[in-house]
Design brief:
The complex is a heterodimer of chains A (about 325) and B (about 450). Chain A has about 325 residues and is an alpha+beta fold. In chain A, about 20% of the residues lie in helices and about 20% in strands. Chain A has helices spanning about 20-30, 90-105, 125-130, 165-175, 205-210, 275-280, 310-315, 320-325, 325-334, and strands at about 5-10, 10-15, 55-60, 75, 85, 150, 155, 180-185, 190, 215-220, 230-235, 245-250, 255-260, 285-290. The longest helix of chain A is centred in the first third of the chain and has 16 residues, at about 90-105. Chain B folds into three domains: about 20-230, NADH-ubiquinone oxidoreductase 51kDa subunit (Rossmann fold, 3-Layer(aba) Sandwich), CATH 3.40.50.11540; about 240-335, Roll (Ubiquitin-like (UB roll)), CATH 3.10.20.600; about 340-445, NADH-ubiquinone oxidoreductase 51kDa subunit, iron-sulphur binding domain (de novo design (two linked rop proteins), Up-down Bundle). Chain B has helices at about 20-25, 30-35, 40-50, 60-65, 90-100, 100-115, 130-145, 175-180, 210-220, 225-230, 260-265, 295-300, 310-315, 320, 340-355, 360-375, 380-395, 405-425, 430-435, 445-450, and strands at about 75-80, 120-125, 160-165, 205-210, 230, 235, 240-245, 250-255, 260, 280-285, 290-295, 310, 330-335. In chain B, a hairpin with a 7-residue loop joins β10 (about 280-285) and β11. The longest helix of chain B has 25 residues, at about 405-425. Classes of the chains: A alpha+beta (about 325), B alpha/beta (about 450). The interface of A and B includes residues 77, 100, 187 and 188 of A.
Chain lengths: ~325, ~450
């Protein structure tokens, strides 16, 4: 008897280990059918389920109980069952709901991409491009906050925060002193360091890497350059605190910033210490490996955009083509 | 005269004390359950009774109990949800205040059935008088040997604690309640796992409403079959209804499920009609979170049948016309009440109470409230009405917990049934702001509804 379970996502079947979430099953398939995730972070226990961008439709629960799930579910927190059938980009309902979520996320997130340090590597920017409306329908005053220096190297700009909780989980799980979390409730919620104390520990810089938007930024890099003008190089050093595996972001011969290495979903592979991140900015500090592999669709690989292509499963199925008319039209525009 | 099971002795002086409660037959259910029944037999009786959760969702209680995981060597918990804080719902507070031993007795019976040796009553923090009443009742029960070690010599141990909550509406959601009970911020957990598998401190847990737990007492005393004879269809037994709004006699009533809504509103046994001789405009049948119904649909179904106070009848007719039994928080609005203002008021509550964890609820509840405020105060646009409908759709079903739905339904249903009143607010901002002008001059919804004015 196989110890794997079969799940079909947008018509593509994959076998995964029991207990795998729909999102991770989709990541095993890859491509466009992978739901976006703003709050889920595979390296952080308990993350996910909050931003609701990864919602999908379970059109068949399992072989044993084929009933569809009554509501859309968060794919990052819903585990697969054998025979489950899931619709992501093939469900107009999902696309509609996701665009609603994006609209909500953008209510209090300024579209100041031209001056935001995260521009070019911002998940919300991508999401807004893929699912957002051209014009906001929200006509009320936005939440605004003063910038807060949490430590000498990290700046928190709550205006851009989408309350994904990733930095809270990071502080909770990989640092030895929990000094920041969420204050207040509802749309008054804010990330705070509890009376503006500094985040001061060896791994605090990782909150910058996990932030999907530009709310937590590296003060040693802020406004130094645009990310697409820099050249990422993988490097390592013998670090007594962390793995020492990093990406160096070069402009000319200068290392402008150091970050942890990220996978194709923008998630840190191994968290790095503050010494590597903030204090080692000379090439001599590092053993250079090779240029970082960057996705062709990333703005960092500028001028190398790949034409959007519909999935083979859609290309071969008139029903799915009809259901994804809008998405397919996009592919002919570029 | 309708049969009373929970409020039978409500008028007996001193019924809140152990001695008087005992004299009136109290704690018989504990004796019967612990001495003559096995835990599984108690669960079976509750299943037979057809009792449905009285907190709002209406899920069969016996079935919920049977889902409880029973791993060896792991504690199981019963938690009573006494965080009642939905606008319009105040029946649990009434029960805890006047007959606290009914809840304590139910807790013992239910804990025994579930194999729980430690149980909690999670009470909303603001209800300090009720917390003190319950603590006193627990002490009395313990002195009499109904709590603690080796209850009535049966070998069953139970410790019962009252835990004040932080005073947030969201803590009435069962997983947020468990988080709060564990001493954390009261944010809902993402399900699964469900509390029956991993609840309080990661152990199998059942969370039941005050009234559901108290209802197990008559079920065990008289038998599940007897209880199931009361009511109609899958709505069995009696139900506490907290009636408020423009009624002659608002208050808490125990009804047999299946009672016609018209009789509940207009008969002298219950609410006695609409106050000041006014006409009924609309009702909210199950607390502020359920869809509002205009008068004609409150009294009659879409096909003309009388609407009954039952889980099925109140939701019949499809979502377009239906509402819900919910928690039994029955609010009546007379013809002078402004639906827009009321909807804004409800929306303000849900905006304030959203925990802020998930994006659609955090941002959407505030958005709806601001748009409603704008319409109510004469700055609305016609497009705002469709915007509200759209935003409510974007929230509904897309949130971690039901608070998003609870915020969306009142808005969507108010616009569905009273759209012309919203449009009137946009068209005539001066008139709707002028309290002297009042809604009496705005008779459109009333004229449309064929309202029965009582018996």
């Amino acid at each position: 008897m196989s110890d794997k379970v079969k799940v079909t996502i947008d018509g593509i079947t994959v076998e995964v280990a029991p207990g795998t979430t729909i999102l991770n099953a989709a990541r095993q398939i890859g491509g466009d059918i992978v739901p976006p995730a703003m709050c889920y972070y595979s390296k952080l226990e308990g993350s996910g389920g909050k931003c609701r961008t990864c919602i999908v439709k379970v059109s068949k629960g399992s072989e044993k109980d084929p009933r569809p799930m009554p509501k859309l579910v968060a794919s990052c927190r819903t585990t697969v069952m054998d025979g489950m059938e899931v619709q992501n980009i093939t469900s107009p309902e999902v696309i509609e709901a996701r665009s609603g979520v994006v609209e909500m996320l953008l209510i209090n997130h300024p579209l100041d991409c031209p001056v935001c340090d995260q521009a070019g590597e911002c998940d919300l920017q991508n999401l807004g491009y893929e699912h957002g409306l051209q014009k906001t329908r929200y006509e009320f005053e936005r939440r605004t906050f003063e910038r807060i220096d949490i430590g000498d190297k990290i700046q928190l700009h709550m205006n851009r925060c989408i309350l994904c909780y990733r930095c809270v989980f990071t502080a909770d799980q990989i640092t030895n002193k929990r000094v920041h979390g969420i204050l207040n409730r509802g749309d008054h919620s804010e990330i705070s360091t509890y009376i503006q104390t500094a985040v001061d520990n060896d791994f605090s810089g990782n909150v910058i890497d996990v932030c999907p938007v530009g709310a937590l930024t590296d003060k040693t890099f802020r406004f130094k350059n645009r990310v697409w003008f820099t050249k990422p190089i993988d490097a390592h050093r013998d670090c007594p605190t962390c793995s020492g595996k990093v990406t160096l972001w070069y402009k000319g011969e200068n290392v402008l910033r150091v970050t942890a290495r990220k996978d194709i979903y923008g998630e840190v592979e191994e968290f790095i210490c503050n010494t590597c991140r903030f204090d080692k900015k000379k090439t001599a500090d590092w053993v250079i490996e090779h240029p970082t592999v960057i996705s062709d669709t990333s703005v960092i690989a500028s001028n190398h955009y790949e034409t959007l292509k519909p999935l083979p499963v859609i290309q071969n199925n008139p029903q799915l083509q009809q259901a994804n008319k809008v998405e397919l039209e996009k592919t002919t525009k570029f | 005269m309708a049969r009373k099971l929970l409020l039978e002795h409500i008028n007996v002086p001193g019924i809140n004390t152990f001695d008087v409660y005992r004299q009136k037959g109290g704690y018989r259910a504990v004796e019967k359950a612990l001495k003559t029944l096995t835990p599984d037999e108690v669960v079976e009786e509750v299943k037979k009774s057809g009792l449905r959760g009285r907190g709002g969702a209406g899920f069969p209680t016996g079935m919920k109990w049977s889902f409880l995981a029973k791993p060896e060597g792991v504690a199981r918990y019963l938690v009573c949800n006494a965080d009642e804080s939905e606008p319009g719902t105040f029946k649990d507070r009434y029960l805890m205040t006047y007959i606290p031993h009914a809840l304590i007795e139910g807790m013992i019976v239910s804990s025994f059935a579930l194999g729980a040796n430690t149980s909690y009553i999670y009470v909303r923090g603001e209800m300090m008088p009720q917390i003190r009443i319950l603590e006193k009742a627990i002490a009395e029960a313990k002195n009499a040997g109904f709590l603690g070690k080796n209850i009535l010599g049966t070998g069953y141990d139970l410790e019962l604690y009252v835990q004040p909550g932080g005073g947030a509406y969201i803590c009435g959601e069962e997983t947020a309640l468990l988080e709060s009970l564990e001493g954390k911020r009261g944010n809902p957990r993402i399900k699964p796992p469900f509390p029956a598998i991993a609840g309080l401190y990661g152990c199998p847990t059942v969370v039941n409403n005050v009234e559901s737990i108290a209802a197990t007492v008559p079920i065990i005393n008289d038998g599940g079959d007897e209880y199931a004879k009361i009511g109609i269809g899958r709505s069995t037994g009696t139900k506490l209804i907290s009636a408020s709004g423009n009624l002659v006699r608002p208050g808490v009533y125990e009804i047999e499920l299946g009672l016609p809504v018209e009789e509940f509103i207009y008969s002298d046994e219950y609410c006695g009609g609409i106050a000041n001789g006014k006409r009924l405009k609309a009702t909210v049948a199950g607390g502020s979170s359920v869809p509002i119904l205009p008068a004609n649909l409150t009294l009659k179904l879409a096909n003309g049948d009388p609407r009954l106070m039952s889980y099925e009848s109140l939701s019949e007719g499809g979502f377009a016309t239906g509402s819900m039994m919910g928690s039994g928080g029955f609010i009546a609005f007379d013809e002078d009440q402004c639906i827009v203002r009321n909807t804004w008021n409800f929306s303000r509550f849900y905006h304030h109470e959203s925990c802020g964890q998930c994006s659609p609820c955090r941002e959407g509840t505030g958005w709806m409230e601001k748009v409603l405020h704008r319409i109510e105060y004469g700055h609305g646009k016609m497009s705002d009405i469709d915007l509200l409908v759209d935003v409510s759709k974007k929230i509904e079903g897309n949130t971690i917990c039901p608070l998003g739905d609870a915020a969306a339904w009142p808005v969507a249903s108010a616009i569905r049934h009273f759209r012309d009143e919203f449009e009137w607010h946009v068209k005539e901002p001066i008139k709707c702001l002028d309290t002297n002008y009042g809604l009496a001059n705005y008779a459109q919804p009333i004229a449309k509804a064929e309202v029965t004015t009582g018996n």
